[in-house]
Amino acid sequence: MTVVLECTGVVKRFGEETVLRGIDLEVVEHQVVALIGASGSGKSTLLRCVNLLEQVDDGVIRLDGEDITDPRVDVDRVRRRIGIVFQAYNLFPHMSVLDNVTLAPRVVHGHGREEAEQQARALLKRVGLADKAGEYPDRLSGGQQQRAAIVRALAYDPRLLLLDEVTSALDPELVGEVLALVRDLKGQGMTILMATHEMGFARQVADQVVFLDDGRLLEQGPPEQVFGQPHEPRTRQFLARVTDAGRL
Amino acid sequence: MTVPAEVAPVVSDVQRDREAYRRHQARRSTGIASASTVVFLVVATVAIISSPGWPRVRESFLNVEIARDSFGPVLEGLWLNVRVLVGCAILVVLLGVLVASARTLRGAVFFPVRLLATVYTDLFRGLPLIIVLYLVGFGLPGLRLQGVPTSPVLLGTIALVLTYTAYVAEVFRAGIESVHPSQRAAARSLGLTHGQTMRKVVLPQAVRRVLPPLLNDFVALQKDVGLISLLGAIDAVRAAQIESARAFNFTPYVVAGLLFIALAVPSARLADYVATRANRRQQAGGLV
Q1: How far away is chain A from the Cα of B287, in angstroms, using its nearest Cα?
Q2: Whole-prediction pTM value?
């Protein structure tokens, strides 16, 4: 079992407020790890720390054994090995879907336009967006935009894929198409760390479920255990609230 | 399958009544507006023409013969203005982007660059253009340094570029800061460097947003190029001055003024058009 991502004692503060209070976490190759927890529990912040969009205030994050929180590390080189998909898609509105997807391969990885576009079209076809390659993002539905954003993150073959509540901004009837894509990626052996509110989905797809509460990692285990027999009262409380809201 | 025949829309009596009322109101306001415009123009014309000094003013400002004679030299001068305008506009846009980018750099390392850019914009937005013209036009060659240009056209261009770059840099900066941070985060997360993010993601969106105010500055620059005459360059204003001294009459200035207006009108209409289009795009919720 190769460990792709290893967080040890990760702390993050925003001014006076401590958002992460020492997180220890491992993501093993080809596994899907789901971060669950209430809004503000630190799920998104942890993902942003892993992608070096935020600087940690303590602790170490290792990617394939390399300490990426070392200030001497070239952040751009680290980010080339990590793909991230945001809740609000964050596609570039002034570029076509195809240009969105080929931007990193062309500009960062030095691929020729033809090669990059060929690969991008193949990926877009796989997610059912072959006919949308030339469209601008605002002409696409939310589900289509999010699938395009996932393809954009996949275009340079990342070692680790981070998904930050990728279905939270979608209309309920569009959630399914994005989740199906994530399930496909797991089938292809992608290593994924995802923050999610979709408990049913986490239960089906995740190998490990991690419950965050107020910046602490309270409980971790296979989904049957975390959802079936949670040890912590806080986890039980959270799951009960989610069940009441009809999300499980 | 047969296509169902187009059914004529049935308009209710209430709607017909509403439409009739709106048509009546529209006719009424058009009528009032036209009538008041005509009345104003007639009163203003009569007031001016019946004023005691009118014959003198007409003779010294609106002399058709002198206008015809001075038209050629003034137009030739205007050609110099147009060339200076084009040169200035290109330099201002390039330098404006550079200064704006410098002002938006983050991190302690870039503090000196940021400070320099901030001091520059503060200084040249505060200094009246005419003072910059004098300082550059007469001060710079006064240093008698090797390689410093002495041509008034070149010195005038430098002064205009210095002042306008400060304005335009601020317009660009506003545009850069209006691009949502999540766009920057998305680009950086793909592994793009800061420079690549600016070039490929931030600036293209920023420029689109600030095009209307940029064109507005262009229209202002269009008339300010006439100020290089202060340094002795023979542009439209200077040519008008020469003609005016020769004929002992102010008409050449009016000719130059009309030519500047003719130059500005297309740019102003273009600016309006671009602004309207940008508004419409925003209302549609899209960007492209």
Answers
A1: 6
A2: 0.81
